[in-house]
Amino acid sequence: MALVLTYGTFDLLHVGHVNLLRRARALGDRLAVGLSSDAFNALKRKHATQSYADREAVLRAIRYVDEVFPEDTWEQKAADIRRLGAAILVMGSDWEGHFDHLSGHCHVRYLPRTENISSSQLKAEIRRGPPTAAVDAAPLPRLPRLAHAGPR
Length: 152
Ligand code: CTP
Known about the structure:
By secondary structure, the protein is of the alpha/beta class. The chain has one domain: Rossmann fold (3-Layer(aba) Sandwich). 33% of the residues lie in helices and 20% in strands. The longest helix is centred in the N-terminal third of the chain and has 12 residues, at 15-26. The N and C termini lie far apart (60 Å). The mean pLDDT is 93. The protein binds cytidine-5'-triphosphate. The site of cytidine-5'-triphosphate (CTP) has 16 residues, from helix 1, strand 4 and helix 5.
Protein backbone atom coordinates (compact mmCIF):
# COMPACT_ATOMS: atom_id res chain seq x y z
CA MET A 1 0.00 0.00 0.00
CA ALA A 2 1.82 3.10 -1.23
CA LEU A 3 0.69 6.31 0.42
CA VAL A 4 0.99 9.55 -1.56
CA LEU A 5 1.16 12.86 0.30
CA THR A 6 0.49 16.37 -0.94
CA TYR A 7 -0.03 19.83 0.59
CA GLY A 8 -1.91 23.00 -0.21
CA THR A 9 -4.59 25.53 0.66
CA PHE A 10 -7.25 24.21 -1.74
CA ASP A 11 -9.52 27.26 -1.44
CA LEU A 12 -12.49 27.44 -3.87
CA LEU A 13 -11.70 23.94 -5.11
CA HIS A 14 -11.30 24.04 -8.90
CA VAL A 15 -10.39 21.75 -11.80
CA GLY A 16 -6.64 22.40 -11.35
CA HIS A 17 -6.91 21.03 -7.81
CA VAL A 18 -8.97 18.04 -8.95
CA ASN A 19 -6.44 17.22 -11.70
CA LEU A 20 -3.58 17.41 -9.20
CA LEU A 21 -5.42 15.21 -6.66
CA ARG A 22 -6.41 12.65 -9.31
CA ARG A 23 -2.86 12.40 -10.72
CA ALA A 24 -1.35 12.23 -7.24
CA ARG A 25 -3.72 9.45 -6.15
CA ALA A 26 -2.95 7.49 -9.33
CA LEU A 27 0.72 7.29 -8.26
CA GLY A 28 -0.16 5.11 -5.25
CA ASP A 29 -2.96 3.42 -3.30
CA ARG A 30 -3.98 6.15 -0.87
CA LEU A 31 -3.76 9.95 -0.85
CA ALA A 32 -3.28 12.11 2.25
CA VAL A 33 -3.55 15.90 2.03
CA GLY A 34 -1.83 18.28 4.43
CA LEU A 35 -4.30 21.18 4.30
CA SER A 36 -2.97 24.60 5.23
CA SER A 37 -4.58 25.70 8.48
CA ASP A 38 -6.02 29.22 8.77
CA ALA A 39 -3.06 30.23 10.97
CA PHE A 40 -0.57 28.83 8.45
CA ASN A 41 -2.30 30.69 5.60
CA ALA A 42 -1.98 33.89 7.66
CA LEU A 43 1.73 33.14 8.12
CA LYS A 44 2.07 32.63 4.34
CA ARG A 45 0.07 35.86 3.78
CA LYS A 46 -2.41 33.81 1.77
CA HIS A 47 -6.05 34.80 2.12
CA ALA A 48 -8.44 31.85 1.89
CA THR A 49 -12.11 32.65 1.29
CA GLN A 50 -13.19 29.45 3.06
CA SER A 51 -12.32 28.35 6.59
CA TYR A 52 -10.16 25.30 7.29
CA ALA A 53 -13.29 23.33 8.32
CA ASP A 54 -15.08 24.11 5.05
CA ARG A 55 -12.01 23.46 2.86
CA GLU A 56 -11.52 20.16 4.69
CA ALA A 57 -15.18 19.13 4.18
CA VAL A 58 -14.93 19.82 0.43
CA LEU A 59 -11.62 17.95 0.10
CA ARG A 60 -12.98 14.93 1.99
CA ALA A 61 -15.86 14.75 -0.50
CA ILE A 62 -13.37 14.22 -3.36
CA ARG A 63 -13.07 10.56 -4.26
CA TYR A 64 -9.27 10.69 -4.68
CA VAL A 65 -8.69 11.93 -1.12
CA ASP A 66 -8.39 9.39 1.69
CA GLU A 67 -7.11 11.54 4.54
CA VAL A 68 -6.87 15.22 5.42
CA PHE A 69 -4.84 16.71 8.28
CA PRO A 70 -3.74 20.25 9.11
CA GLU A 71 -0.51 21.77 7.83
CA ASP A 72 0.61 24.28 10.43
CA THR A 73 4.28 24.83 9.62
CA TRP A 74 6.76 24.64 6.73
CA GLU A 75 8.91 22.25 8.76
CA GLN A 76 6.43 19.45 9.54
CA LYS A 77 6.75 17.58 6.22
CA ALA A 78 9.57 15.17 7.20
CA ALA A 79 7.70 14.19 10.40
CA ASP A 80 4.44 13.76 8.42
CA ILE A 81 6.21 11.50 5.88
CA ARG A 82 7.55 9.33 8.73
CA ARG A 83 4.26 9.25 10.69
CA LEU A 84 2.17 8.33 7.65
CA GLY A 85 4.81 6.11 6.03
CA ALA A 86 4.41 8.15 2.81
CA ALA A 87 6.12 6.70 -0.27
CA ILE A 88 5.77 9.78 -2.50
CA LEU A 89 5.46 13.51 -1.88
CA VAL A 90 3.64 15.24 -4.75
CA MET A 91 3.56 18.98 -5.36
CA GLY A 92 2.47 21.07 -8.33
CA SER A 93 5.18 22.32 -10.67
CA ASP A 94 4.98 25.83 -9.14
CA TRP A 95 6.96 24.23 -6.26
CA GLU A 96 9.59 22.63 -8.56
CA GLY A 97 12.83 22.09 -6.61
CA HIS A 98 11.49 23.46 -3.29
CA PHE A 99 11.14 20.09 -1.60
CA ASP A 100 14.07 18.17 -3.08
CA HIS A 101 15.66 18.12 0.38
CA LEU A 102 12.94 15.62 1.41
CA SER A 103 14.05 13.05 -1.18
CA GLY A 104 15.99 11.21 1.56
CA HIS A 105 12.62 10.48 3.22
CA CYS A 106 10.50 9.50 0.17
CA HIS A 107 10.21 10.06 -3.59
CA VAL A 108 9.50 13.68 -4.45
CA ARG A 109 7.46 14.36 -7.61
CA TYR A 110 6.34 17.67 -9.13
CA LEU A 111 3.28 17.40 -11.38
CA PRO A 112 2.47 19.94 -14.10
CA ARG A 113 -0.05 22.59 -13.06
CA THR A 114 -3.30 22.91 -14.98
CA GLU A 115 -3.00 26.06 -17.03
CA ASN A 116 -5.10 29.20 -16.67
CA ILE A 117 -6.79 28.50 -13.36
CA SER A 118 -6.02 29.22 -9.73
CA SER A 119 -7.96 30.20 -6.60
CA SER A 120 -6.56 33.75 -6.85
CA GLN A 121 -7.61 34.01 -10.48
CA LEU A 122 -11.14 32.86 -9.62
CA LYS A 123 -11.35 35.44 -6.81
CA ALA A 124 -10.19 38.19 -9.16
CA GLU A 125 -12.72 37.16 -11.81
CA ILE A 126 -15.57 37.11 -9.27
CA ARG A 127 -14.50 40.58 -8.03
CA ARG A 128 -14.44 41.91 -11.63
CA GLY A 129 -17.96 40.60 -12.36
CA PRO A 130 -19.35 39.73 -15.79
CA PRO A 131 -17.59 41.25 -18.83
CA THR A 132 -20.43 43.68 -19.57
CA ALA A 133 -23.26 44.73 -17.31
CA ALA A 134 -25.47 44.57 -20.41
CA VAL A 135 -25.26 40.77 -20.47
CA ASP A 136 -26.85 40.57 -17.04
CA ALA A 137 -29.38 43.29 -17.80
CA ALA A 138 -30.67 41.64 -21.01
CA PRO A 139 -34.26 40.39 -20.59
CA LEU A 140 -34.78 36.61 -20.60
CA PRO A 141 -36.54 35.26 -23.72
CA ARG A 142 -40.26 34.62 -23.16
CA LEU A 143 -41.14 30.91 -23.18
CA PRO A 144 -44.33 29.76 -24.92
CA ARG A 145 -47.14 28.74 -22.54
CA LEU A 146 -47.59 24.96 -22.56
CA ALA A 147 -51.11 23.51 -22.60
CA HIS A 148 -51.69 21.50 -19.41
CA ALA A 149 -52.03 17.86 -20.55
CA GLY A 150 -52.43 15.89 -17.30
CA PRO A 151 -55.36 15.64 -14.85
CA ARG A 152 -55.94 18.66 -12.59
N1 CTP B 1 -2.47 23.35 -8.62
C1 CTP B 1 -2.38 22.81 -9.90
N2 CTP B 1 -2.92 23.51 -10.96
C2 CTP B 1 -3.52 24.71 -10.76
C3 CTP B 1 -3.61 25.25 -9.45
C4 CTP B 1 -3.07 24.54 -8.40
O1 CTP B 1 -1.84 21.72 -10.12
N3 CTP B 1 -3.99 25.37 -11.79
C5 CTP B 1 -1.86 22.61 -7.52
C6 CTP B 1 -0.72 23.40 -6.86
O2 CTP B 1 0.45 23.26 -7.64
C7 CTP B 1 -0.63 22.72 -5.51
C8 CTP B 1 -2.11 22.34 -5.22
O3 CTP B 1 -2.80 22.41 -6.48
O4 CTP B 1 0.15 21.56 -5.59
C9 CTP B 1 -2.76 23.27 -4.22
O5 CTP B 1 -2.54 24.58 -4.69
P1 CTP B 1 -3.13 25.90 -4.05
O6 CTP B 1 -2.02 26.85 -3.79
O7 CTP B 1 -4.04 25.57 -2.94
O8 CTP B 1 -4.03 26.40 -5.29
P2 CTP B 1 -3.93 27.68 -6.22
O9 CTP B 1 -5.14 27.63 -7.10
O10 CTP B 1 -2.60 27.75 -6.91
O11 CTP B 1 -4.10 28.85 -5.14
P3 CTP B 1 -3.63 30.39 -5.19
O12 CTP B 1 -4.14 31.02 -6.43
O13 CTP B 1 -4.22 30.97 -3.93
O14 CTP B 1 -2.10 30.35 -5.13
